[in-house]
Every structure is written in C-alpha cells, then in structure tokens.
Amino acid sequence: MRELKRKVYDLRKDVLSMIYKAKTGHIGGDFSVIDILSVLYLKQMNISTENMDDPNRDYFVMSKGHSMEAYYAVLAEKGFLDREKVINEFSSFGSKLIGHPNNKLPGIEMNSGSLGHGLPVCVGIALAAKKDKRSSRVYTVMGDGELAEGSVWEGFMAGGQFALDNLCAIIDRNGLQISGCTEDVMGQENLEERIKAFRWHVIQVDGNDVEALDKAFEEAKGTKGMPTCIIANTVKGFGGGPIMEKKAEWHHKVPNEEEYALITFELDKRKEDVCNE
Q1: Domain interval for residue 106
Q2: Residue 112: HSE in the Cβ half-sphere, 13 Å Cα cutoff
Q3: Residue 194 and residue 182: Cα distance in Å, rounded?
Q4: What distance in Å separates the CA atoms of residue 203 and residue 258, rounded to the nearest whole number?
Q5: Mapping DSSP to helix (H, G, I), strand (E, B) and coil, where does residue 264 land?
Q6: CA–CA gap between residue 170 and residue 141 (Å, rounded)
Q7: CB-hemisphere CA count at 13 Å for 65?
Q8: What is the tally of structural domains in the chain?
C-alpha cells in the first residue's frame, strides 16, 4: 500500500508531462480522480492484458471521459499502453491517444465523454453478467458535475430495481466543474440520501486516500442485494499544491513553464512525505 501511495504521485507527474507537452487536457479532474483509478486498476479489479477476452473479467467505464489523461497514465502502468507514447503522443496529429476514451486502444471498453452515459451502460453490463451467471464486477467513475444529467438518475433507478450487487458507481466529488462550483451550477445537496432512495448502498470516503478507497471497494464487494455507490470526496487538482488545488480554472488549464516546475516540486515533496511516514 505504501508503494501505491507513492505511485499515485508518479502517475500525476506523467499526467502533468502529457498535458504540458500536448498543450491541452483536463488536469484538475485528472489529479482528483487518479487515486480512484489507481486503486481500481492496480489493486482491486480482475482485469489485465491477459484476460481482456475473458467474459468473467471485471469491466470499467470512464464516464467522466475528459479526465482521460489520468486514465491513460494508469492504463500504461497496468501494461495496456506504452508509457513513453502516452506522454509524447497524447493529442498529437494522427494519434489514437485522443482527449477522450477511445476503444480502438487496448484496455478501453467503450468511447465516452458525452456525460451521463457511463452509469446506464454499466447497468446493462452488470445485468447481463447477472443473467449469464458470470463473476464479473462492473465499475464506472462519474464527475459530480455529471450528476446534472437525467440519464444518471435513470441508471441509479434501474441499478436499484435489479439489485445489481455486482455494480459499483464512483462519484469524483471534487465540488468544481468547468463553470465553477458544482453547487452553484446544479446543487447536489443530500446526495447520499437521494442515492439511497434508489435502493443503493452508499459509502462516503476520502477519495484521495488510497487506503480508505481500498477499504470502500472491499465493502462494496461484500455488499449483497443492492449496488454500491462510493461518494469519493476529492480535491480538484489534488497534489498540485496551492497554485492549483480547489481552483476551477484548472479544469482544463495548461501549465506554463514556471507552473510546471512548481507542480513538479510539490508532487516530489508529497511523494517524499509518503516515504518518511
């Protein structure tokens, strides 16, 4: 677990390099969600380069597809993609490493980025797995701004109706979106109670704490008779230090040379702090 705590800062540095070189990307959401993706792919999910054709594998859909850079970094760490190509060819002309999930690439189940689709699709995947009596678990990550989409709530309704205990939805609850504060754009107060009303098990967790996330995913696996939603309370730009944390402008801001150096310093410092724990 300590190695994973360190790894998430290395992966953030990969994201930073990717966006700095390409001069495009969604770094704030990348930095908030990368701990979730890392725990899923490097610790929890039954998925690998060897079992992608096995119907009993676990399934993942990146519903908040604009945080693709974090997803690329984790897929490269898992062996699906080449790390050097990810860093140097992201969003370059003719590259398949585009700014949203592209299922022409290994390890990616479906194209996404048009928000509100991940959860409904995963309800279908989970229901099919149940009917086929497969052991697969199904995961999707959504942004809290995405919850303004009506199809998300249809997904919550159907997931509870069919008692899909092989389904786990994760909300990256960082409180900010492209237009500013999520609560100002479309308030999500009483979120836990609202999701519970659709017959879901709900877990609130620090979404930038890999140990807490790991425990939450274990609890989800052990929950029977209903799906689980993990509300991962995160910090937009987490790990980037005071120049980017909790600032909506970093939703898709590209760092300049000075900012790149400051963020790199902050990531190295936090990784070192983990080593000294």
Answers
A1: 2-275
A2: 26
A3: 17
A4: 39
A5: helix
A6: 5
A7: 21
A8: 1
Angle between helices 118-131 and 150-161 (to 10 degrees): 20
Helix-then-strand count for the chain, H and E: 10, 7
Work out the percent of the chain whose per-residue pLDDT is above 70: 100
Q: How far is CA 122 from the centre of its chain?
A: 14
CATH of the domain at 204: 3.40.50.970
| Cβ proximity of 46 and 70 under 8 Å | no
Enumerate the β-bridge partners of residue 201.
228
pLDDT, tens only, 203-219: 999 999 999 999 999 99
SS3 230: strand
Residue 194 corresponds to which tokens in the numbers above? 């609202």
Alpha helix (H) residue ranges in 23-137: 27-39, 68-78, 83-89, 118-131
Phi, psi of 240 (to 5 degrees): -85, -5
Q: pLDDT by residue (tens digit) across 4-50?
A: 999 999 999 999 999 999 999 999 999 999 999 999 999 999 999 99
Q: Tell me the per-residue pLDDT of 79-136, one tens digit each, with 9 for 90 and over.
A: 999 999 999 999 989 899 988 888 889 999 998 888 889 999 999 999 999 999 999 9
